[in-house]
Write a structure and sequence with these properties.
The protein has 519 residues and is mainly alpha-helical. It has 20 helices and no strands. The mean pLDDT is 88.
């Protein structure tokens, strides 16, 4: 299964390389080769318990698929923005690619360094790949860009040491690279933009995302340290939690956002949300769907009898939430993507805050949330945090947040790139959902080495093709320009990756589909 997963990732890398064909795509190929070899060293460390931190069990290290996400995203973003003539974002794409390669190399060197005896061949490969990447960076990046890349690496190292220690068994090494690498990059961007504020420059919704992500992470770190010294389950601690949340929100996060957007954040948000009648209709519709999702949770818990305390929700039951999320995102993508962008940021902040309430058992809702959500746990929620619903939201939202709007003057990219914002809907909302439902109910022929079925994968590909056809009918901004073969190949590769990967598919699949469609 690991070999097939690696083969699929290599297929994506070579597809991007064939389209771009520059020094950075060659670096991506070199990085993929060395990550393939180092991945087996990480797998061996996890099996023998020799890794520095406790990682999530029942999964391989996932180093290769995770290592290639940021570099490939940077490469395709650079190419799209170069074609559009937007130099600033072309350079930004180069920084993203270089940062991703350096973070992946760091994780590879770490694995090689703690493996005993030292693997000579893997060391040589890592050295060659590292030399190629550093040589390319030396001749491609300015001094300020090199400093920026090193800053992200430094933040990543410290953030990894803190969070992997505080949150054992929540991530595989690959998932840690993706999540903590992304948070490190966002934090560095926020610091950089805060120090270089120019009035009127920058979109407020981008600043809103940066501040929200960094704000909730800092909030979690603050309360984690605080509750080491006091019991979080008491009423006094809970009152202190709510009070300090308000103080940090109104006293730190709001002024920070005010400095960036040069206006009152609350007034700006209210004006933005109720700017048009369409937005008002969408907000009412989304409120109804959120209430429906809460209704599913309460109904499923009400069905749980006292005799079946260990009963868990079935796969089909969990996929109800995928259908609700698709129903949420598709109208937003068609009618108002900016509103969807901001609403997804708000929803992410609320999800993470509620997870803090559950994790720290904050009164009055902490224990209730623990009881309600325990029904929907699966083998991937083996750590102290429940992250699958947050990963689902991220998987649907990242293609919207990472869409290079400045490099798409008409609001959409040409060809298959027009489907980039729909990557989450296609890969997770449609593909993963249909594969799980049909595979678990009608599947008989299993893919070698996995529990996934041939019928589930084929049905998922077919469903995504139908979804693309429906998008063409209902979204007039999408014009594929006869790139149907590339779309079919992209959907097929990502669906096969879903069958073979043991990583969090809600997070990984939309990013790989976005890379393929942007290429």
């Amino acid at each position: 299964a690991v070999l097939v997963e690696s083969l699929l990732v290599f297929s994506v890398v070579l597809s991007v390389h064939a389209v771009v064909w520059d020094r950075f795509s060659w670096c991506a190929v070199a990085l993929a080769v060395q990550a393939f070899y180092v991945q087996f060293k990480w797998d061996r460390l996890l099996q023998l318990g020799g890794a520095v931190f406790q990682f999530r069990g029942a999964a391989n290290s996932g180093l290769l698929p995770a290592s290639m996400v940021m570099p490939l995203l940077g490469v395709v973003m650079k190419e799209r923005c170069r074609a559009a003539g937007i130099v600033y974002f072309e350079r930004f794409g180069i920084v993203v690619a270089s940062t991703g390669m350096l973070l992946a190399l760091f994780l590879s060197v770490l694995a090689v360094g703690i493996t005993k005896p030292v693997p000579t061949n893997t060391c040589i490969l890592t050295g060659i790949a590292g030399s190629v990447i550093i040589y390319t960076m030396k001749h491609s990046l300015t001094v300020s860009e090199v400093i920026e890349v090193l800053e992200v690496l430094l933040i990543f190292v410290y953030l990894s040491m803190i969070l992997l220690y505080l949150l054992p068994r929540c991530f595989t090494p690959g998932e840690a690279l993706l999540v903590l690498g992304g948070v490190s990059f966002v934090l560095n961007q926020l610091i950089k933009r805060s120090l270089n504020v120019i009035k009127g420059r920058g979109d407020p919704i981008d600043f809103f995302l940066l501040v929200a992500v960094v704000g909730v992470v800092l909030l979690g770190l603050f309360f984690t340290v605080l509750f080491i010294f006091m019991d979080s389950g008491t009423w006094i601690s809970s009152m202190f939690f709510h009070m300090m949340t308000a103080v940090l929100g109104l006293g730190v996060i709001m002024p920070w956002l005010y400095r960036l957007i040069q206006r009152n954040p609350l007034f700006w948000l209210l004006q933005f949300l109720f700017q048009t009648q369409t937005r008002l209709y969408l907000l009412v519709y989304w409120t109804f769907l959120a209430a429906s999702a809460c209704g599913v949770v309460f109904y499923q818990n009400a069905k749980r009898s006292s005799e079946s305390k260990k009963h868990q929700a079935s796969t089909i039951t969990r996929k109800y939430f995928h259908f609700i999320v698709v129903a949420t995102y598709v109208p937003g993508l068609i009618y108002d993507r900016q509103l969807l962008y901001v609403a997804a940021v708000l929803c992410l902040a609320v999800f993470i805050f509620l997870e803090y309430v559950r994790y720290f058992r904050i009164k009055p809702f902490g224990q209730t949330l623990r009881h309600l959500l325990s029904l929907f746990l699966d083998e991937r929620d083996s750590g102290p945090l429940i992250l699958t619903h947050i990963y689902l939201l991220l998987g649907m939202s990242l293609p919207v947040w990472l869409f290079p709007r400045s490099c798409a003057p008409k609001g959409t990219l040409p060809g298959a790139g027009a489907l980039v914002p729909y990557s989450g809907v296609l890969a997770v909302g449609v593909g993963d959902t249909i594969a799980s439902v049909f595979g678990s109910t009608m599947g008989e022929i299993k893919w070698p080495g996995t529990k996934k079925t041939f019928e589930g994968t084929m049905t998922a590909i077919f469903a995504q093709i139908i979804a693309v056809a429906l998008i063409l009918i209902f979204d007039s901004s999408v014009n594929l320009n006869s790139s149907y073969a590339w779309i079919l190949a992209s959907v097929s590769l990502v669906s096969l990756l879903e069958a073979y990967t043991t990583q969090i598919d809600n997070l990984l699949l939309p990013l790989y589909l976005q890379i393929m469609l942007m290429a």
